[in-house]
Write a structure and sequence with these properties.
alpha+beta, 6-stranded antiparallel β-sheet
């Protein structure tokens, strides 16, 4: 059970379990919001600048006003301080359309900004994944945006858990490999480290981009069958960092393989050397 924490809601620190948002908030009634999740180690968040830049891109994609980066940083620092000490935490920024009439139209009260922190546990070095039958729509109006409309991911992740896996992988409408519900996917084919391009509809993951930059990965349009042919597979996300996949459905893979092991080591070293790369 998670310990009680303190959150920041529109400038006020509140108990995370207490009611603090209107029932008419557009993020609640329509999923009209965007968010970012950051890893926080000993009260310090990782890659804040990159996360804030993506928060702005997602907000613009929904037609929300640009979030005030200074205010978001202030909210993060207040929450981290209020919940200190927390060795490993999940720091989440949520930015919604604010209070609005019931329906799809936005109101005039301005956005809602929330910063919250939950405890996290270090992920295992290896995991299992399953491919689910639903498709990412790479042509969607919200493709590539990190929105709070996460029902698809909730359903897919529940299916993965029923299959004894920690993550579900999805193809896009063209049948190409896309992403996980909360992760990006990398494969090693013929010794080359590859990941689906953003045009596939996948999220522009912060950890994904750092692995591309630091480990020499290449973007490639990949068939879903690449999961059955790959010599190695791994996932990336803010809380997973680099995590080896040792089972895809009924296929077992040895792991972590040499490319994955190197990516794990490089990411650990580089992220430890610079908290805001």
């Amino acid at each position: 059970m998670q310990h009680p924490t303190t959150s920041w809601v529109n400038g006020t620190l509140v108990d995370s379990a207490d009611p603090a948002l209107s029932v008419l908030d557009h993020g609640l009634t329509t999923g009209d919001g965007v968010f970012e999740t950051m890893k926080a180690v000993d009260g310090r968040a990782f890659a804040v600048t990159r996360h804030l830049e993506r928060l702005t891109r997602s907000a613009r994609g929904l037609g929300l006003p640009d979030p005030d980066h200074d205010l978001v940083r202030e909210a993060c620092e207040a929450v981290l301080a209020a919940n200190h000490p927390m060795p490993l935490g999940r720091l989440r920024i949520t930015y919604t359309g604010g209070t609005a009439p019931l329906g799809s139209e936005r109101g005039d009260d301005g956005p809602t900004l929330v910063a919250s922190l939950g405890t996290a546990t270090r992920r295992p070095d290896t995991t299992a994944v399953t491919v689910v039958p639903w498709r990412r729509n790479e042509h969607s109006a919200v493709a590539g945006l990190k929105t709070t409309s996460y029902a698809e991911n909730v359903v897919a992740l529940a299916a993965a858990h029923r299959a004894g896996a920690s993550e579900a992988l999805l193809a896009n409408t063209a049948g190409r490999l896309c992403e996980g519900t909360g992760s990006n996917v990398f494969v090693v084919l013929g010794g080359r480290l590859l990941t689906p391009p953003l045009a596939s509809g996948c999220l522009a993951g912060i950890t994904r981009q750092l692995v591309v930059d630091w480990c020499g990965a290449e973007e490639a349009d990949l068939p879903l069958d690449a999961l059955q042919e790959a010599e190695e597979i791994f996932l990336t996300s803010s809380l997973r960092d680099v995590q080896a996949v040792t089972r895809v459905d009924d296929r077992e893979l040895p792991g972590p393989g040499p490319v994955t092991t190197k990516a794990m080591a490089v990411f650990t070293q580089r992220s430890g050397d610079d908290l805001d790369p």
